[in-house]
């Protein structure tokens, strides 16, 4: 079964082709236009998607070595995301599905991140067994998900304010680092002392996360120290980055450990942009190795937004007989 996946929820336009979950192509056009603004500008993102979508889809089909008539269904990101951006991918997918007279499958972007672990290099690729626990950490979400099957996921806990990626990006911004700051913090942290600064950790019941207090405590540390030394950030950036990263990782692992113990599940995975972080990857691997738990750490290319994961999520929904109507509108927030 050949699925064309289309992703346009935020600032990356992507198209991918999979055959029975084996990746044939995955083309991503990133939008550089936002860098000057320190964050994604929604209107500019929609316009860039409009410019990119036709060449990106054509290139994905070409690289896959198939022709349009080989495609069995089109899977597209219906939400959550930026409304204007989602409209471009949704409208394009509908138009192409109509023209080719093939079914449309609407995909929840977050399910796509979780199911990125099912993108195969070939038929021998090992994938997680069900149920597994997934720590989904991205720029907009931080969730602990119990994945019962590709189409049955339960959210055990999630952030009540900022996401882990937002904590990285907002703290990086006040340090004067480019957007998105997560990868810069990751790099700086490798030369810093993670125990040099202490930032506040949340005390939230259950499996939920909170990262806004950490952001405030980070800001206060900068403010108090800059009064004494105007070069404080420049002189201490590696230690600041390492201490910030350690606090985020400890917070993530604390609740994840609780969920692993409560469910007794022995297979875990991490997904989303923040799962590219070296410290997070090492912490999860070490946690699992110590307990004999099987860990799935994604390839870095599948941690951030990509259409391959959307195609895979669409593959499973399509197998389950779930297609969507041509009138389906995109959703800024999750309802599917
Ligand atoms: O999954 P994603 O591409 O977008 C959403 O769907 O939200 O995640 C983007 C987030 C950004 O916050 C970015 O700073 C973060 O992932 N990120 C990282 C790293 N690479 C990307 N955070 C920490 N360390 C990294 N290496």
List keywords for this structure.
2 domains; binds 5'-O-[(R)-(carboxyoxy)(hydroxy)phosphoryl]adenosine; five-stranded mixed β-sheet; Nucleotidyltransferase, domain 5; alpha/beta; 336 residues
**Global Rg:** 20 Å
How much β-strand is present in the residues? 15-25%
Number of helices: 9
Query: And the CATH topology of the largest domain?
Result: Nucleotidyltransferase, domain 5
Spatial ordering of strands, largest sheet: 3-2-1-4-5
SSE string: EEEHEHEHEEEHHHHEHEH
CATH homologous superfamily grouping of the largest domain:
ATPase, nucleotide binding domain
Shape: globular
Which stretches are poorly predicted, pLDDT < 50 over at least 5 residues? none
Terminal residue distance: 23 Å
Which kinds of small molecule does this entry bind, naming each only once? 5'-O-[(R)-(carboxyoxy)(hydroxy)phosphoryl]adenosine
- The count of β-strands is 10
Largest sheet: 5 strands, mixed
